[in-house]
Amino acid sequence: MNFYKKIIISSIVMSNIIGCQKNECLDGVKARIENNQLDGCGFTIKLNNGDQIEPINLSDFNLEPEHNKKVWVSYHINQNLSASICMVGEIVVIDCISER
């Protein structure tokens, strides 16, 4: 009986560990939120590849933006805007964002 309890507990622990890294955004990439309030820009998102993007609709999502919060994000480039206050990256529309 103890053997089966150990297997069940191990399975639950492993599924919780694996579940923490689940990407809820289709085609989402690893990123983190950056707070650029001092520069007057607000929040930007730094992708794991080093690129930075400027979302125009971050407030549309049920996510509390915090500096260095790790997220999954999928997005597309906004064709209507060409410049911003931040000037640190592409201006984008977020399609999906979730904590990781």
Describe this protein's structure:
This protein has 100 residues and is an alpha+beta fold. The protein has one domain: OB fold (Dihydrolipoamide Acetyltransferase, E2P) (Beta Barrel), CATH 2.40.50. It is 18% helix and 36% strand. The chain has one helix at 2-19; strands at residues 29-36, 42-47, 52-55, 70-77, 90-99. It has a five-stranded mixed barrel with strand order 1-2-3-5-4. A hairpin with a 5-residue loop joins strand 1 (29-36) and strand 2. The chain is elongated, with a radius of gyration of 18 Å. The N and C termini lie far apart (36 Å).
SSE arrangement, N to C: HEEEEE
How far is the first residue's CA from the last residue's CA? 36 Å
CATH-assigned homologous superfamily: NigD-like N-terminal OB domain
Helix content: 10-25%
CATH topology, by name, is OB fold (Dihydrolipoamide Acetyltransferase, E2P)
Tell me, briefly, the overall form.
Answer: elongated
* Biggest sheet strand line-up: 1-2-3-5-4
Radius of gyration: 18 Å
Mean pLDDT: 83
Second rung of CATH, namely the architecture: Beta Barrel
Number of helices: 1
CATH class identity: Mainly Beta
Number of strands: 5
Low-pLDDT stretches are 13-20
Structural class: alpha+beta
Counted up, domains total 1
Sheet with the most strands, sense and barrel status: 5 strands, mixed, barrel
The percentage of residues in β strands lies in 35-45%
